[in-house]
Design brief:
Strand content: 5-15%
Shape: globular
Order of helices and strands: HEHEHHEHE
CATH architecture: 3-Layer(aba) Sandwich
Oligomer: single chain
Helix content: 40-55%
Number of domains: 1
CATH superfamily: Glucose-6-phosphate isomerase like protein, domain 1
CATH class: Alpha Beta
């Protein structure tokens, strides 16, 4: 069991080294998109399904509350957080798109997190963000 645990850690470290080399430019570009949007008075919206929903919710909470440094709150909202609203939207394909229709503004940033990348609700969210002329940052496990 100890060898298995060590192998998981080693594999994780090796993966992180490869990803740091291959994704550095994309991460920098995404960070610049987010910072530019915020400096222009816009907000960050985020969505995801399943465990990705938990990730965007955690990310949003860290933007709004300063964890280790004192700073102003960053305008952000996780579209996965309002249980009453989510249960009221009958068509699940529209679960995020409807919120973007109501709350999204030009040059806001939509961050999507998805392991599969082909969920209809995520695709509709992206389509609606494009209509609103929002910036999109996609965190996916696929191309």
């Amino acid at each position: 069991m100890q060898d298995l645990i060590k192998n998981y850690f080693t594999e994780s470290i090796q993966t992180q080294i490869v990803m740091a080399e291959s994704l550095g430019y994309s991460i920098e570009k995404a960070a610049n998109i987010i910072v530019d949007s915020l400096l222009n008075g816009n907000k960050i919206m985020s969505c995801g399904n399943g465990s990705s929903a938990a990730n965007v919710q955690s990310f949003t909470s860290r933007l709004i509350t300063s964890i280790n440094i004192e700073r102003p709150s960053i305008p952000a909202m996780a579209l996965v957080s309002d249980n009453v609203l989510l249960s009221a939207i009958a068509n699940h394909e529209e679960i995020y798109a409807r919120q973007i229709q109501a709350l999204g503004q030009q040059s806001d940033v939509l961050i999507i997190a998805t392991c599969q990348g082909n969920s209809r609700s995520i695709i509709r969210a992206v389509q609606e963000a494009v209509i609103k002329d929002m910036k999109i940052v996609a965190l996916t496990a696929f191309d």
